[in-house]
Amino acid sequence: MKLKALSLIIIFGFFCTLANATTATDAAKSIQLAEDLWDKTKSAGHEWNTIKPLVAQAKQALESKDFATAIELSNKASQQAELALIQAEHEKTNWLNNLPK
Amino acid sequence: MNLLSKALITLLLISLTSVSYATPEQDKETFQSFYTERFPDISKAEFGDGVYALDQDARDQWEAMNDFPPYEDDLEEGETLFNTPFTNGKSYASCFENDGENIRQHYPKFDSKRNMVVTLELAINECRTNNDEEPLPYKKGDIAKISAYMASTSEGSEINIATPTSKGELAAYEAGKQYFYSKRGQLNFSCANCHIQNVGRKARSETLSPALGHPTHFPVYRMKWESFGTLQRRFDSCNKQVRAEPLPGQSEAYRNLEYFMTYMSNGLPVNGPASRK
Amino acid sequence: MHKKLLIIISITLLTLMSNLLFANDMDGKKIAFDRKKGNCLACHVMDDGDMAGNIGPPLIVMKARFPDREALKAQIWDATTKNSISIMPPFGKHQILSDAEIEKLLDYLYTL
User: Which candidate in C78, C80, C85 is best for mutational testing of the A interface (most A CBs within 10 A)?
Assistant: First the structure.
């Protein structure tokens, strides 16, 4: 009985570590994705200054092992980078509407 | 497809191509007459005073401030720096036409050998590196002081940027033009949104200044900065305000933008350095 | 006894609700005035705001001007769908404000 409980605890502990590790990897991946998209906005010449702090905060959260926050913030950074890229694409033609008439 | 829709599409194409194929000279005419028609009581030269040409109250305060210009010390320092020889004994004057006097109105220039726009500040730093000196940091500090002194020797000379005609010139000009009219940043503003479409209106209590005349009075001593800043330092402020990341000083996009904007102000007298709130 | 309790409970509930509603309006106003949030005063005269700009129209009689709440929300969400060069920031589309913040803002705007 004691042994059974012990093994259960060990198994549970193992899964916990596993889950934790996955989240750490997920967070790192999520940050990497945000950084890649952020780089694309730079080459497109449409970088928003809101992305840098989001990525920095996400990295800080990862360091302090707050993986959920890291993922949440890097997702937000990715979304904003994607919006900046949409803006860049749209302005390739829309800028002409801005000319003085 | 019926005849009518074909005709409409043709018309649309013609109007589109006529927009994108406007020559720089036509652009400049449209740009300048936009402001002179919008503000018929203001002469073209006066647009170099920015908001102080549009807002009499602000102008009164500004003129009072200019009884003792806040930039006097920095301007003097700029003159001293300009005249101090490099370690090799040469000076800034040796790098420029007319010994660097009264030349501001010709910058930025297009360098066809290197196929790039050269601003006055870039030329100042190239003068240094060609004489084995370290380049100065851009946007503020000594480079702005030197540039301010050089601008002061051009007072009253009309901005005279050669009309872009070569393929390289036109590419740089068009890139600068596209930058000016493109929306950017999280707030989604173009330069034109504020400085053309809403010129003279107020954002909070600040009057939006005309883009015609923007380049004539730089470097500017801004009370907010408590120092001189180049036109490109000012680009940074605008970019931050619309939540776009500023670009490095003398980056290609900034040089092209400065080229476009300065050409739009051709014919206006140089009146820099100037003070701003 | 029973009646008294009922009255007390309903008063408490009503106070709570009105507090909530009031708080909602206050939140909306805060969002509208905050320079880092709506910053509506940058362009619009509104309410008791100081030093308002005049780039956009004054925000008055909103119910009459926007009988359809969704139409007003769409304008705040992304004004460029109606006018591709509109200077008004696309508050929703560009994540300047969250959906919840825009809803609070709308509640407040309809008090004007």
Answer: C85
